[in-house]
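To whoever picks this up:

The parser on our side crashed when reading a file containing two proteins. I've narrowed it down to the boundary between the first structure block and the second sequence. Both blocks are reproduced below exactly, byte for byte. First block:
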Amino acid sequence: MIKKVVVGLGNRSYPIWIGQDILPVLGQVLKEHDFPKQVAVISNPTVGQLYAPQVVESLTKSGLKVSVINIPDGEQYKTIETLTQIYDVLIERRFDRYTGLVALGGGVIGDITGFAAATYLRGIPFVQVPTTLLSQVDSSVGGKTGVNHAQGKNLIGAFYQPSHVHIDVNVLKSLSDRDFSSGVAEVVKYGIIRDKTFFEWLELHRDGLLHRDAELLVDAIMMSCQIKANVVENDEREQNLRAILNLGHTFGHAVETLSGYGVIKHGEAVSIGMVMAARTAHHLQICSQHDVNRILRLLEHFNLPVNPPEFSAAEYSAVMTHDKKVKDGQVRLVLNHGIGNAKLHHVDNLEELLDGLLN
């Protein structure tokens, strides 16, 4: 059974396929959609060892000419330097405008491959084959691509939509418990910002999801992708509504930056950030303590951290002022209004607010 979600963006629309054991049909799908016949699969040694042979075989059987480019594994390698390495190989192997890229990996691979596709020869098509839960429900959908800068996460990038997203839940069996839980944070986020019924569904099925029941995972991923697709269709370039997808991310990115990229996983940082957002919302009387507690309990059930690392309010504030949502020098935070709704709020005296929350 393959479930499908369509991201409707006119002539840039694309399908998301979600199912069990669907990697073998990737080549057939791309052939039917007239994807370029010359393909570079971009991955890392960890993921490539597990899934590249299966992907290459599928693509080759469908008549595509395939090269594999491996880049180092880890958030700390999501840099301009790694991007340049990809360009070097593409140029060396004489990849032209009738080339396609396949991102086989987690969020780092997807973001950097998408940015390479957006910028190589001014743009070539690419496909997302996400292999972590976090990338399946978040970074592979919506067209955000980019790399990190020393002063902040994802400060260099472009909006560039994939041609297809291919999600096989079987690959989640190889994730560590910590990586799996990291992805669940983004799933919980969708319930908080947009769908109270989905949040309640997660509360009901949390044990089955924690044990990686395949059918539950397909449903959770499909619902998450549908929520994100609905938001992206209404605000592709994050002028207003799409910002709600960043619940927990402003503080979470600061956690990642201060801790050093890769020390705290992205989903873990988002979990901490969502709790900080909920506590801020409670402070502003737009979220009840009961709802804050529900969010805390669900995140903790999935073994996610909820308390921030011990940096000062001044340190957090300094990093958060570099966030992409800053407008005219003023920090804006996504805050949940209870469960099932969220809005962007201007924040005055950020350091003072953080000092009160952290202490």
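<<boundary where parser fails>>
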Amino acid sequence: MIKTFKIGGIHPKDRKLSADAAIETVAPSGTVRIFLSQHIGAPAEPVVAKGDTLKVGQLVGKATGFVSANIHSSVSGTVTGIDRVQDHLGIYGNAVTVKVEGDEWMDDIDRSNTIEHKIKLTAEEIVKKVAEKGVVGLGGAAFPAHVKLSVPPGKKAEYLIINAAECEPYLTSDYRVMMEHCDELLVGVQILKKALNVPKAFIGVEINKPQAIDKLRAAIAGNEDVEIVPLKKKYPQGGEKQLIKAVVNREVPSGGLPIDVGAIVHNVGTALAVYEAVQKNKPLIDNVITITGKDLSVQKNLRVRIGTPVASLVEHVGGLPENTGKLILGGPMMGKAISNIDAPTQKSTSALLMLPYSEALRQTAAACIRCSRCVGACPMSLEPYLLKKFAERNMYDELEQDSVHDCIECGCCLYSCPSNIALLDYIRIGKAEVMKIRRNRKK
């Protein structure tokens, strides 16, 4: 039975142009810049200094709170500075700059290709190891993984759901992980199950990935505590709340979290990173990034060391096509346009998309025709046209009363608007202000 969520959603074209491109490993070179804040929560504090010599996997930034994450060196070389560096949005943050010199790894990291199936650590030790190795959610939000594994008092985890939907157009990094690292991924699922003490895990995969579904089903044959759930091709199927509704038919309440309905959701890439951390003692120092675009002569899925300049990824595919109008880190729906091509990749970087001018330029906005398509498309049952008006007029009380905090910023409203109104832009601004007001209220 093919499942999906019922409220809202859209059906953009797949454009999985890089689906057949096997993962290639990019050797580090030149200089990397490793941000000390690559996660939701408090930035890490540097534990190295200019002139220090580093090995791959060495700790360079220590977490400064429970909702924070350790940062490790992705290369070996010499620290040339701890400075303010621009990210892809042009925002400055503290980063450790390392000149690459060779590729010497920490001795305690298992670099063999042997798949370690036996899980030796206890649940508590798993959570500690995941925190120690700086694993964060690789589905986009970069939420520290150990926090999700630490179920709050009074709550109980009943289900583990692995997000393998990869519903964004163009993105194929999760698909390639499923195809090439299926066994390691499934060990990672078992590790997560053990940490959470849940009886069953579900892996939700959209039906536009039949080969991945077949491969996962063959790998779990006879194992009843893991179920592969085929999902209808529908965006944003990979949203936590939408995925939970589709897979276990539970609805996360307004302002609530997945644990409120007994669910914990982790991404495919996160499950692989957990396997590497627990079974191989490897910190999160690299990730798989899709390099794609309609006019690229070659499509790639690259395993890239964190801190690698975006510009070097562009060079790896032969440079920008002449008609490129916009570079986006992430997918076309929720990704962000790059303002600084020399910015380094981060833990949450999933794709580099090169859009032609014809798709990059926004159409001229017209007046709202009250068609309510944005309402029908919203997967959170919100009224985007109304939220836009409230945000435009700085009506923050009304925004909060209409649950702007529930907006997942998926872009379905903008995609469906026949008047080309920048609904999401206004809503994002209004939501940010409301969240700031709520934080100050708690203080």
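After patching the parser it read the second block fine. The mean pLDDT is 96. The longest helix spans residues 423-442.
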